[in-house]
From TrEMBL, chain A:
<feature type="transmembrane region" description="Helical">
    <location>
        <begin position="220"/>
        <end position="245"/>
    </location>
</feature>
<feature type="transmembrane region" description="Helical">
    <location>
        <begin position="33"/>
        <end position="58"/>
    </location>
</feature>
<feature type="transmembrane region" description="Helical">
    <location>
        <begin position="344"/>
        <end position="364"/>
    </location>
</feature>
<feature type="transmembrane region" description="Helical">
    <location>
        <begin position="112"/>
        <end position="129"/>
    </location>
</feature>
<keyword id="KW-0472">Membrane</keyword>
<dbReference type="InterPro" id="IPR001851">
    <property type="entry name" value="ABC_transp_permease"/>
</dbReference>
<protein>
    <recommendedName>
        <fullName>ABC transporter permease</fullName>
    </recommendedName>
</protein>
<keyword id="KW-1133">Transmembrane helix</keyword>
<feature type="transmembrane region" description="Helical">
    <location>
        <begin position="265"/>
        <end position="288"/>
    </location>
</feature>
TrEMBL record, chain B:
<keyword id="KW-0472">Membrane</keyword>
<feature type="transmembrane region" description="Helical">
    <location>
        <begin position="95"/>
        <end position="112"/>
    </location>
</feature>
<dbReference type="GO" id="GO:0005886">
    <property type="term" value="C:plasma membrane"/>
</dbReference>
<feature type="transmembrane region" description="Helical">
    <location>
        <begin position="272"/>
        <end position="295"/>
    </location>
</feature>
<dbReference type="InterPro" id="IPR001851">
    <property type="entry name" value="ABC_transp_permease"/>
</dbReference>
<dbReference type="Pfam" id="PF02653">
    <property type="entry name" value="BPD_transp_2"/>
</dbReference>
<feature type="transmembrane region" description="Helical">
    <location>
        <begin position="146"/>
        <end position="168"/>
    </location>
</feature>
<keyword id="KW-1003">Cell membrane</keyword>
<feature type="transmembrane region" description="Helical">
    <location>
        <begin position="6"/>
        <end position="26"/>
    </location>
</feature>
Amino acid sequence: MNWACECPVPLKNPQNHDQSLLMQLELRESTPWWLSLSAPIIAICLSLLLASLLIVWAGESVIEAFRTMAVGAFGSTFALTETLSRAIPLTLTGLAAAIAFRARFYNIGAEGQLYCGALAATLIGSGFLNLPSHLLIPLLFIAGAAAGGLALLLPWFLKTRLNVDEVVTTLLLNFIILLLVSFALEGPLRDPMSMGWPQAAPIIDAGVLPALVPRTRLHAGAFFALAAAVILWLLLRYSVFGFSIKSLGLNSHAAEHAGIPAKRTLLWVALLSGALAGCAGVSEVAGLKGYLTLDLSPGFGYTGIAVAMLANLHPLGVVLSAIFLAGVSVGADSMGRALGVPSYIADIMVASAVLSVLIGLMFTRYRIRH
Amino acid sequence: MDILDILISASFWAATIRIACPLVFATLGELICERAGVLNLGIEGIMTAGAMSGWLWVFNGGDLISAVFFAAFVGAILGLLHASFTVSLGLSQHVTGIGITLLASSLSYFIIKMLLPASTAPPKITPFQSLDIPVLSALPFLGEALFSHTALTYTAFLIVPVIMYVLYRTPWGLAVRIAGENPVALEAQGINVISVRTLAVMLGSALMAVGGASLTISAFDAFYFGMVNGRGWICIALVIFASWRPGKALLGALLFAGLDAFQVRMQQQVGAYIPYQFFLMLPYVLSIVAMIIVARRAEYPKALLKPYRRGERL
């Protein structure tokens, strides 16, 4: 190959020396429905394949390992409620990523926004206000949503006004917010009854989300997450706002040219995305844990991106893919306890599912040119 | 007065150089990728994989120098994966990068857990020892600050002029820069954009992995979970801060390392008054501030984030 650009290279017709590393692709005019549906299925199969290679390496039987995983995730009432309760924050952070990514606002900061929501819920719900449940619980969600949304205001401002990449700012803010929470838990918010552990005072009884199944951890946040998905789906499908988001995502220049106020739409997208992630924090604090700690979220914000990708950014699909990925991690935990396979296999499956769904989605948009 | 004490101590400057080493490697790696038009958000995972593989190589009896090359090889393979997604297939560079980070770091942790299942305290290796440069290291102050580091740390600083030479003085460097600015023009020269970009991403990722490896086989002597600890993301901010120039990238890395070394020492002095979390926040806050400062005049490589498909207009 001739790298020398300064010397005159005989111009070749690009079509003639067309020995590209991969095949030629051409844009599809329309996508058959079965093809759009097959992308996530292929992705799940590929991630199962990679996982089975690792299980073989660990010296366990693949069928036995997946059986343990499935039973651990869906095999009993207890397993099912554990999976569903883990799917609640994943649905909310998944929706947060889905709406932002649809508008090409790459919010990687759901983890930080989740903690903002949790912090707000702790501030209000741990005895500061004494209200009956039907007032206090909505108030907790409103406060958490506001806190999560506010956490995205700075990245939005920097992106639209100063042209600073939102990927890096939202990501760096995660670390800053987590350190703030750590400071709050060791200082002003530390529960004096916690025997020195960095944790905040518990949410008062009126603020705790009721359990759905007795003696399990599944709580009423499930309804909230489901309702959020449906409302978001209706909003994206039938409202002007949904149309603006779609056109911004497709081509921001064309959208602006057509009179869609890009900055303002992005502001609402940012507020909504942050609010959803903030609600995930509220539901974890008020529904699952009862109090704020630094390990409230094992990376729900980041997994939310995978949830959204696996669902092809579709709000209703987010619910399904959240349940699936929650099942993968709950199942991998119980497999890790039962067999000698490290539970990091759950993260590997999530990551390989994201990467393979990307390929699958490409084939729904492009076809191989003959 | 306290601040002055810190600044005139040789150990502070030595720590700055030591902390800068992984940042220099990884920032240069990211810079090469972005100069070719590919944002590589896999950096955090690639650094973790480099840290793990370099350490594992030595733990299994390999020597330190081949460990560096092994880590670079692992990084290049991950770079090839990133490139085949983003360059060959033209998929979203943001999402692919996050996916690679998640995949590479969870695979690294999985492998470590598989090979060392029962260990509670991570086993240690003998890392690079500090290599005192004759005569120069005997100098007062300067000797301790600059000329008493490990071979890998010296390499980090020596590689900056090499990368500058390659990027600005060789035909391949020119091809990389054009691939990031105007791939159509490169194609018109009869040069395959896909392969230029793929090679650049592989080389860049190899450098990131060496940066990660320098943590386990030069700065420390064991592999810990979460050991890269956001350094990769800082490097992405550093590339923007450096306006995509290797010389400024070195400066930025030194500045951040100096800040890091400074905050540790400040913590010891005023830690009773200011909570340590605020010191730990400093690098992240300053990354954002640095990006705001340079963003107005930032000259992004014009084809950054834009997939190149033959026959399709940008």
